[in-house]
Structure formats: C-alpha cells, structure tokens
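tokens incoming
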C-alpha cells in the first residue's frame, strides 16, 4: 500500500518537474530567437542607412563582435552575427516565426533559398515535431523533391500545397516517395545483399525506417504469414498508417520490378481486405520497393486493378540533390 502511494507521488512529481523543464526550455528558446532576430534587424537597418557598402559592413561586424563579446559575453562572433543577419533577411516578419522551432532549427532553414521549399520544411518540423537531427536528415535526402517526384505528376499546385501545409496524407499515393533512401543502413551501393538481410537491417534500424516512411506509420511485423488453400505466403513487412487507417504492406525486391511481383502483392492486399481488415479500416496499400522499375510495364500491369499498389525504387546513399532538383524542374516545365 505504502509502495503504491510512493509510486503515485513519484509519478506526479516527475511529470510536474518535466513539464516545468519543458516550459522553461520553450521560454528560453523563444527569448533566444527573439534576441537574434532583433540583432539581425539592427544590423540590416544599419546597412540600409549606409547604402550597403560591403567593406563598411565587414568592419562594422568585426567591431560589433568585439564590443558585444566584451560587454555581454560569448556567442557573438562575426559568423554568428552574419547568421543573425541572414535570419532577419529570410524572416523579415517576426509574426511568421514559430515558438515550436529552436534557433538550431532556424539555422538549417534560413539558408534554403527557395521560399516554397523552406516553408515546406518549416511546416513539417512543426507538424511532425522533427528534432534538428531529423530535419538535417530530411534536408540531406531531399524530401521535398522526392515527394514531388513520387507519382511523376509534379505541378505548381502541388509545390504550393506542400509549401502552405506541408505533407498532407489523405489518399494512398500521399505516403509514397521516389526514391526511398536507406543511407542509415551503411550499405555500400555496389555491395550485393539478400532480401532477408535487407529486411533484417531495416527492422534493426526501425526508428530510422519509420522516419523515412513518413508520418503516421506504426510497425506491425515482418514475415507476416498468409495461408491460402494450404499454401503459405509471407509479406516482408507490414505497417499501419493511422492517418489513412490502412495496413501498408511492403515487399522488398533486390532487382528490377517484375509483373509477377505486382500479382503477388495484389493477392496479399485482397487477403488483408477480406480477412484482416476491421470495419473501420481503409483499403490496404501495397508498396513494392525495388532496385529499378519499368514505368511502361508498370502502367500496363496495374491497368484495371482496383487495389492500391505502388512501386518505388530505393537507394543506399543520399541522392544527388542537384539531379533531383533538375528532375523536378523538368517535370514542372512539362506540366506547366
């Protein structure tokens, strides 16, 4: 009895202290962002008054850094003052800043030149509660471009939607990326690997894999057995997406996509819809991850199927950003 009372008290006090720490951290972060934004404002307004003379600006920042270090302490090096200047230039309206984002978040965001892209990552940081590490990873793997290329139908409306609200998940195609990036596995691109070994590594790094899959994914299990007419089949990985309220079945293929892979996935989805789904569940979704895919074959093979089947490629290394950006611009031009 006494032990239960103590445990209850410990839990209440722990929650109280943790909430206090969280509130304190939020207030400190808000103050830091406010001060740094205003320092940037003062620097920029001073530049404007002096006709933006470059050499004058350099000397001002050096002198300002020396004096601030003398009077208020460390943290005001020339490079930091430059970042504060960039911060204000990127966000001239203080009301647009979010209390949920730290100075470290803004250090990553402010250097993104494309405003639509910057807005997208900012919205995702807030909506998905990304840490700075998670933000850096999504920037490095070019999530914005991969979402635009996911169904080959990138257009200006889609760019605008991503920049305004971030990634919305309202239909099955919204969860698909092109390509998926598994750099966290540490596998060399040319190193041969078996499907079961890839599956094992993804499970071992399940937190990273869930981050790559996107919002709302929960891991159900691997090698999920399906028995039909005394024949056993096994789905490589099964997830559940809480936004779509649907099971998501993932099949891993080490080589190119084949027509029979799509037929097998169609079988899996029919089984899940008829035997596993509850009344509240949406139609299950199938994603085949392969090294390569033939778009023409895919179009013919999927014609007439009512199930949600998607095929996407994966890579073991971070894709070339310039190549992805160029590909997005090409698709946008074609659809303009």
């Amino acid at each position: 009895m006494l032990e239960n009372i103590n445990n209850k008290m410990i839990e209440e006090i722990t929650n109280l202290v943790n909430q206090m720490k969280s509130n304190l951290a939020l207030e400190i972060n808000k103050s830091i962002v406010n001060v740094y934004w205003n320092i940037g404002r003062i620097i920029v307004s001073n530049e404007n008054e002096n006709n933006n003379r470059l050499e004058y600006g350099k000397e001002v920042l050096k002198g300002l850094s020396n004096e601030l270090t003398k009077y208020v302490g460390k943290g005001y090096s020339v490079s930091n003052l430059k970042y504060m200047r960039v911060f204000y230039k990127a966000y001239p309206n203080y009301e647009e800043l979010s209390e949920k984002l730290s100075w470290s978040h803004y250090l990553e965001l402010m250097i993104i030149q494309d405003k639509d892209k910057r807005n997208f990552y900012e919205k995702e940081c807030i909506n998905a509660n990304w840490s700075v590490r998670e933000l850096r990873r999504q920037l490095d793997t070019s999530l914005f471009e991969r979402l635009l290329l996911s169904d080959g139908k990138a257009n200006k409306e889609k760019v605008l939607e991503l920049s305004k609200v971030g990634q919305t998940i309202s239909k099955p195609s919204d969860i698909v990326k092109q390509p998926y990036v598994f750099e966290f596995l540490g596998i060399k691109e040319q190193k041969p690997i078996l499907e079961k070994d890839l599956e094992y590594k993804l499970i071992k790094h399940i937190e990273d894999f869930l981050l790559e899959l996107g919002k709302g994914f929960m891991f159900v299990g691997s090698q999920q057995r399906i028995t039909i007419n005394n024949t056993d089949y096994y789905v490589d990985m099964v997830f559940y997406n809480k936004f779509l309220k649907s099971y998501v079945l993932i099949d891993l293929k080490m080589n190119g996509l084949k027509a029979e892979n799509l037929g097998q996935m169609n079988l899996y989805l029919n089984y899940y819809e008829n035997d596993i789904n509850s009344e509240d569940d949406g139609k299950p979704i199938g994603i085949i991850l392969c090294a390569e895919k033939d778009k023409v074959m895919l179009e013919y093979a999927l014609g007439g199927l009512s199930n949600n089947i998607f095929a996407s490629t994966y890579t073991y290394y971070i894709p070339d950003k310039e190549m992805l950006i160029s590909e997005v611009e090409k698709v946008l031009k074609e659809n303009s």
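note: The CA atoms of residues 61 and 82 lie 8 Å apart.
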